[in-house]
Automatic annotation (TrEMBL):
Entry keyword set: NAD
InterPro entries assigned: Epimerase_deHydtase, NAD(P)-bd_dom_sf
Protein's name in the database: NAD(P)-dependent oxidoreductase
Pfam family membership, one: Epimerase
SUPFAM superfamilies: NAD(P)-binding Rossmann-fold domains
Organism domain of life: Bacteria
Gene3D superfamilies in alphabetical order: NAD(P)-binding Rossmann-like Domain
Organism of this sequence: Iodidimonas muriae
Domain NAD-dependent epimerase/dehydratase: 103-214
Length: 291
């Protein structure tokens, strides 16, 4: 049986977790990074890495690795000109032969603000932030690419990502955690291991044009989550600060302009995903003794 091959545009936090998971199952993984040190680090663990900064296409070796892959994932963010992967490599995608699955990692931010109400994949996207508008435009670019090239493109709208080395526990330990008080405000989130679990499930059940929300089962306020993280560490939680008094960057403040609960039923029912960490309490407990 031929080896399965995955190519990842943007081997960042989530894609690297997926790559390591698939490597353990015997897959060959290749993808792009932005710097030579990242390239060397990945090649040291058996991942063929190619430089791509969104300003110019990959070299011939990178394009050959792409052409040799049956599964392709992009987590590269859009820019003010659209999607850099599609812009520089649309001809390479059009020439792909046996491509079984293409995934694009988007964000639940495309839904905009719903006053704390529930949204699902049937909810019309109404982004209000600049990044949400860009992501929705990128989704449409990828869907159009799939239609033109006959590729099975899937869109994954991710909630806030946490996991090893990137969680409220790390923020509390570093003394950087803040509890922002905005009555009724909630966020959805997902452990990086469950992102990988959902992507693998989709690879096994491709459905061209599918859109999936990836999040856990328990939307909650960031203040509640930080307080729980502090309790796991045996610390007092930081005091709550009203949103209008908080010293936040414009980007951080913009997250509080959107309030919604993201529903993940399609991920459960269609892909058969059983989350390893269905809520933040299970996720944070699993990370307590990890570096």
């Amino acid at each position: 049986m031929a080896e399965e091959r995955l190519f990842c545009f943007g081997l960042g936090y989530s894609a690297r977790f997926l790559a390591r998971h698939l490597q353990a199952q015997g897959w060959q993984v290749a993808g792009t990074v932005r710097s030579q040190p990242d390239r060397a680090a990945l090649e040291a663990i058996g991942i063929a890495a190619f430089l791509f900064d969104g300003q110019a296409p990959m070299d011939a070796a990178g394009r050959a690795a792409l052409a040799d892959s049956s599964y392709i994932l992009s987590s590269v963010p859009p820019d003010d000109k659209g999607d850099p992967v599609e812009r520089h490599h649309r001809a390479d995608f059009a020439a792909l032969g046996d491509c079984r699955w293409v995934g694009y990692l988007s964000t639940s931010g495309v839904y905009g603000d719903h006053g704390g109400g529930w949204v699902d994949e049937a909810t019309p996207p109404t982004p209000i932030s600049r990044r949400g508008v860009r992501r929705l435009a990128a989704e449409n670019i990828w869907r159009s690419l799939g239609d033109r090239a006959g590729l099975p493109v899937h869109i994954f709208r991710l909630a806030g990502i946490y996991g090893p080395g990137r969680s409220p526990l790390d923020a509390v330990r570093a003394g950087q955690a803040r509890r922002i008080a905005k009555p009724g405000q909630v966020f959805s989130r997902i452990h990086v291991a469950d992102i990988a679990r959902a992507l693998v499930a989709s690879m096994a059940r491709p459905r061209k044009g599918a859109i999936y929300n990836l999040c856990d089962d328990c939307p909650a306020s960031s203040s509640e989550v930080i307080a729980y993280a502090a309790s796991l560490l045996g610390q007092d939680p930081p005091p709550e600060v009203p949103l209008d008094e908080a010293d936040l960057s414009p980007m951080a403040r913009s997250f509080y302009s959107e309030n919604k609960r993201v529903r993940n039923r399609l991920m459960h029912v269609e892909l058969g995903v059983e989350l390893a960490f269905p809520d933040y309490k299970a996720g944070l407990a699993s990370l307590l003794d990890r570096p």
